[in-house]
Structure formats: C-alpha cells, structure tokens
Amino acid sequence: MAKGKTGKKEKKIRYFDYNLLFLLIFLICFGLVMLYSASSYSASINFSNSAYYVKKQIIFYGIGTVVMIVMASIPYTFWKRWATIIYAVAIALCVVILIPGVGRSSHGQSRWIQVGPIGFQPSEAAKIAVIIFLAMMFERTYSKMGDFRTLIKLFLLVLPVVGPIAWNNLSTAVIIMGIAFCMAFVASPKYSHFAVVLLAGVAFILLFIFGASYRGDRVNAWLHPETAGDDGFQTLQGLYAIGSGGLFGKGLGESMQKFIVPEAQNDMIFSIICEELGLFGGVCIIVLYGLFLWRMLVICNNANDLFGALLVTGVMSHIAIQVILNIAVVTNTIPNTGVTLPFFSYGGSSVMFLMLEMGLVISVSRGIVLDEIK
Questions:
Q1: 358, 364 Cβ separation under 8 angstroms
Q2: What pLDDT is recorded for position 61?
C-alpha cells in the first residue's frame, strides 16, 4: 500500500461500472417488452404461441448472460495472444459458408452455419474477431500509425474477412469496415489520412451495390418506395407506422402495422416502437443508447492500456453503427440493408455475440484501478 502526497496510505480499488450494467439490464428488459408487443401476432399465426419469439429470446439472453460472465471474469489481455488465431478461424468460417451445401440460406443468401441443433452466423463472430485482432495490431504498430502506408496495410488485413461477408451480406461488411475505421481513427495521430480511406470505403460500397441486381433494386426502392412494388412495401409500411404513432403513440401493444410490416420483430421493430410509444418513445430509446455508449466511453478513457481502450472502442463502434443504420433504414434515410436493432430485434446469434462483447467491455472496466486515500 503506497503513501500519497499527504502521507496517508493509498488503497487500490478495483473499478466496476454499475451504471453500464444497469443500462444493459434496462435495455434488455425494455427490448423484451417491445419484442413481445411487435411479435405476438406473427408468433400466434406461425407457431400458435404469442410468446414464441420472446421465450426464445429469453433463452438466448440466459445463455448470453453466462457467456458474458465468463468473458468478464477472464482478463482481457488474455485474448491478445490468441487474436491472430481467432481472426483466422473467423475468416475460415466466412469462406466455408460460401461453399454450396454448407451454409444455410436466409432470404436467398447463404449466411448461417448449422451444427446439429445450433445455428449461428459467422458474420456475427467476425465482428468480435476483427475487434480483438485490430486492437492487437494497432497496439503493436502504434508508433507507426502516423505513416499512411502502415494504415493502408492494416486496413488491407481486414479484407480477407470483409470480402466473403460482402458477397452475401453487404450491410455486415459495411459495419465491420466502420468498426475498423473508428478503431484506426482513435489509434492514429494523423486524421488527414482518413479522408482517403473514407473515399476508398465509399467506392468499395458502391462497387458491391451495383455488382448485384437486387442491391440496385433496393436503391430504387429507397428513392421511390411508392412505385417500387414489393421492394418498397416494407419501407412504406414502416413509415406509415412511424407517422401514425404521432407524438406519444397509440399505446403499448396497440400497433396496427405489426399485422402488416414484414420482419416487425427483426429489422423493423423501431417502427413498431414509434407507433406504440410515439416520437417521444423513439427519442427516449436514442437517448438510452447515448447513455449506454457514454458509459463505454468512460471505460475507454480510463482503460489501463491501449489494447483495452481499443477493444471498448470497437464494441462502441459496432453498437453505434448498427443503431444508426437500423434507424436510418426504418426512416428511409438510407436504402434497406437488413440491419437489426441491438438488444431489441429478435435473433440468437446477434444476442449471443452482443453479450460476449459486453463481457469483454466489463473485463476491461474491471482492469481499471482507482486510488483511495485513507
């Protein structure tokens, strides 16, 4: 026990962010309530059980909570030595899924791997793999991050995982590139380089958008949803839901558009929230996400080392980008991309890996040491 300037003893205190934990629990509980409200009709029609989706989601959160606790109990520096192997496995999974007959299809695209009763999306695993790998690489090359060539080389390291994902799931590829961009922006001392990187990223996205006809149809549906037929149906119904909610909404469970909107429990759940809780409810959720990200920012700023700070930066970037993209899609600000709303949309893979990421953030926060003078 060291002595401070006052001659009194300083006691080391392990930090734990209870505010972050409270916000996480609140997001999960709020998300489950809204999931039940948005999915009850669809679940009744398809499974004769109005609570089908929410029950499965609770199971996913139960397993995810165990995963989070395990991750939180492991020192985050442990993952540094395994970063390259984790990244290599993620690349292999993303490539394997492209082999005909291996991947399970979703909406016409091969995105799932089924192992017995367990199915998961390799693209979700790739997000956390990229975060851990880039945090290790950026820390290792920190002294050279001011060199533009070093920055480009590091971005090229992401392409082996982004390429296979972009082939079938452009929105997830954009999220991963966004995560890499944010982490590099935090680690680099020179911000002027990022204008070139940003332009290259936009070019990459445009190349893939017009490289497949169905993506071009989505752009057309974004610009003219009223004349796009089936391609614009989901967007229009989502906008009707938001508009009919008014300022304070119709009331919890009173949505009418959940009977019509496709994927009401998944990509379009924010439109149902706005219909039932109004503009006020939608803004409250955005503020809630803002507080959640702010608590992670506090942990990032106080992390013991650059590796920990970059891990939290990666998780922050992932959640922030996904929230922005989902709300932008629902409000027709950008073309439909099929991005879920974290902690609200239904989905086992997304829940599991989100909870895993939260365990990683908590692990970084537990590494923070405070001094208490006695």
A1: no
A2: 96
